[in-house]
Design brief:
Number of helices: 11
Radius of gyration: 22 Å
Distance between the termini: 57 Å
Bound molecules: pyrrole-2-carboxylate
Helix content: 25-40%
Number of strands: 19
Largest sheet: 8 strands, mixed
Structural class: alpha+beta
CATH topology of the largest domain: FAD/NAD(P)-binding domain
Length: 413
């Protein structure tokens, strides 16, 4: 066997299929330039190439592939939102996640765990009931359960009355899942590149060229590029990039911190969220406890970590999961959440012709990766706002037609 392996490895006709086909120099012109090589930008490039046959596409990033919020999130996927618009949108995302490993020929380690949103107050129970009804109405599996049922499904959780904030019940969402975040981005990148899409890391956009109200290209640290259409998907820097095109966004950027423990044997199968305690937790396939809490209490463009965050998180986490007292924190990091006033994204057309936006993801960008890619590609290819994206148009802030989604947040704000 080792001999056969050696023979195969040394064979000159060995079918090497490089994971990524990196482009060399930038071309002078592309049909579409996507700013941001994170999950959303790469997914859009993938769908442009595969569904719409548009392959003369450059995806630019000032850093490295999927090194922004795609690398900094806590990988939760769910569709248990509060508004009908949000539920329909994330339902499509969950469906796309389920078939993603096969579609991208990449194991994204999609793992359905069941998702609890714990309720510790009557108000939280009421929101849970509301979400369950909207979810069920739109075909998403969610139900309200009591504390005893929570304990039956998740035996490691402390549901005792003898704590500061006893658990009254939960919104239980069986399809709640986790996935391997970098594999998702790499899978889209690899398949898009195979179709001819170019991905250019270390290529920072310094300006958007707008002529007669229409986007016609970008200037970058590696020269100027003309483009038929330009899209931005730069979570954490959305306002900054939009401003280059002359757009003001209703977005405030706030750091969101997270951390993981040292790895341990499987002990927690579910994803557990408590909005009242400002904590959420799941266990990764590697065994690490992946945890987070509230956004930082101030707007800031920074990805530094604080001791204050860890102390606050653990104070509540120990109440829910006393076994956490035995574990050490291994890593801590932060991403930058672009928050809109209604906690819903901004997607699609803009007042600038041929300039498209994918922004305002707040704390739920990762779980929207496939659906945002698919629907933004449709929007860019057709020049029309897809039905699923109509509620999330930038113009809603002019008409005050907001999509209030704060009640579905896992993260405290
Ligand atoms: O919306 O599930 C969520 C979430 C968890 C952490 C950040 N967002």
């Amino acid at each position: 066997m080792p001999f056969a392996l050696l023979k195969y490895g040394l064979k000159s006709s060995h079918p090497i299929d490089p994971h990524f086909r990196w482009a060399g120099d930038l071309k002078k012109t592309y049909d579409v330039v996507i700013i941001g090589a994170g999950g959303h930008g790469l997914a859009c490039a993938y769908y442009l190439a595969t569904t719409h046959g548009i392959t003369n596409v450059a995806v630019l990033d000032k850093g490295y592939l999927a090194g922004g919020n795609t690398a900094r999130n806590t990988t939760i996927v769910r569709a248990n939102y509060l508004t009908p618009e949000g539920v329909a949108f994330y339902k499509e995302s969950v469906d796309l996640f389920r078939s993603m490993s096969i579609e991208l020929d990449m194991n994204v380690m999609y793992s359905e765990r069941g998702h609890f949103t714990l309720a510790h107050t009557d108000a939280a129970m009421r929101t849970a009931r509301w979400r369950a009804e909207v979810n069920k109405h739109l075909g998403v599996s969610s139900e309200v359960i009591d504390a005893r049922e929570v304990k039956r499904i998740c035996p490691t959780m402390n549901v005792s009355d003898n704590v500061r904030y006893p658990i009254l019940g939960a919104l239980y969402h069986p399809p709640g899942a986790i996935a391997r975040h970098d594999s998702v981005a790499w899978g889209y990148a690899r398949q898009a590149m195979r179709k001819g899409v170019e991905v250019h890391p270390q290529t920072e956009v310094k300006g958007i060229l707008v002529e007669g109200g229409r986007a016609v290209g970008v200037t970058t640290t590696r020269g100027t590029i003309r483009a038929g259409k330009v899209m931005q998907a730069v979570a954490g820097s959305s306002s900054h990039v939009a401003r280059m095109a002359g757009l003001r966004l209703p977005i405030k950027t706030i750091p969101l911190q997270a951390c993981v423990s040292e790895p341990v044997k499987p002990i927690l199968d579910q994803i557990v969220v408590s909005g009242s305690l400002h904590v959420y937790i799941s266990q990764s396939a590697r065994g690490e406890m992946v945890m987070g809490g509230a956004t930082d209490p101030y707007g800031l463009y920074s990805t530094r970590s604080t001791l204050d965050f860890k102390e606050g998180l653990m104070g509540h986490m120990l109440e829910l999961f006393p076994f956490m007292g035995e574990l050490k924190i291994l890593r801590q990091w932060a991403g930058m959440a672009d928050m809109t006033p209604d906690f819903s994204p901004v997607m699609g057309l803009t007042p600038i012709e041929n300039y498209y936006i994918d922004a305002g993801w707040g704390t739920w960008g990762f779980k929207a990766t496939p659906v945002s890619g698919k629907r933004m590609a449709e929007c860019v290819a057709t020049g029309r706002q897809p039905d699923l994206l109509k509620p999330f148009a930038l113009s809603r802030f002019d008409t005050f037609d907001l999509v209030g989604e704060k009640g579905a947040a896992s993260v405290g704000h």
